[in-house]
Design goal:
The chain is an all-alpha fold. 42% of the residues lie in helices and 0% in strands. The chain has 3 helices and no strands. The longest helix has 14 residues. The radius of gyration is 14 Å and the shape is elongated.
Length: 79
């Protein structure tokens, strides 16, 4: 829903934390490494900067360190 008087939104819909969380769960189920490249491939969209930021917020990516098969909480957390 757009605000009254706000210009129309253009471009593609951005990715959400929930999108990234689901992609990480799918990667875990497939035994693939969780990282920005694989998350982007799984989602089919999203900027790497946004994906990295969300992965850090979810605790899936350390500062410059690669982790394989990082487990994420299965319960949806409110954001």
């Amino acid at each position: 829903m757009e605000e009254k008087g706000a210009p129309p939104r253009r471009g593609r819909k951005g990715i959400t934390r929930e999108d990234v969380r689901r992609a990480c769960e799918a990667l875990n189920a497939q035994g693939r490494q969780i990282g920005p490249t694989n998350v982007r491939l799984e989602l089919g969209r999203g900027s790497y900067g946004t994906i990295v930021r969300i992965l850090r917020e979810l605790g899936s990516v350390g500062a410059g360190k690669r982790r394989s098969r990082t487990a994420l909480p299965l319960a949806a957390e409110p954001f």
